[in-house]
Amino acid sequence: MLFSRTVAGTLFLGGGIAFTLGSLLYPSMLGVQKVSSAPDRIIGRPATGPLTEADRDFVVEVRAAGLWEYPVGRMAIQKSTTKAVKTAGEHLIAGHASLDAACRGVAGELDITLPNQPSPQQQGFVAQLTAESGKQFDTDLATILRATQGGILSKTANVRTTTKNSLIRALADRTNDIVMDHITLVEKTGLVDFDRALSQPTGLPAQDTTPPPPVAGQPQAVLPSPADSTLSPRLVAPSGGQGRR
To answer: What is the pTM of this model?
Structure first.
């Protein structure tokens, strides 16, 4: 990973959470810009409802987003010269810690394998911001986050309206709330370059947008929640679901 030593230290390996190879491996060609070729294909029928490739891909993408935005939140607190950017960083950390816990819970119940690292493209964002400082850092952080979170928000809405699985619906609801909070705070910094944020390239090679699969036997990376966070790590499935509470 292209994280700095300080940032990498925030990704603790959960001592008691051993990685288990699930039957629903996320495909090696899964990308942030492009989901599976057959998103509607049903790959499992758990008690919480039919699970499709698009559902599985969504869980993987939410996990990957947290793996790079969480350390960027730490950078915002440590490096930014503005209170607004520092506040956005605090929300990135708390939001993604809560969302990642929910994501790992859903993956465990639905037997979905999660990455331990973000995609090469996302690692590149971290490397770029690690090397920057001052106004350039603040502006690029706000602009990159606004662009990527806009994409996740669109994907979340699509999954929420099409999934038949109650745990995926609950995760989509949680994701929507947290991403909307992050987008709002990033925009409040007044530093977003919307021309750049809304004209990000699409159709990037899958190898750039695909988070690498975890190494067999490697413990699952955990994003620790801040001590003062008020966000619950538990995910409550909507009425009719039988997800674990």
So the answer is: 0.80
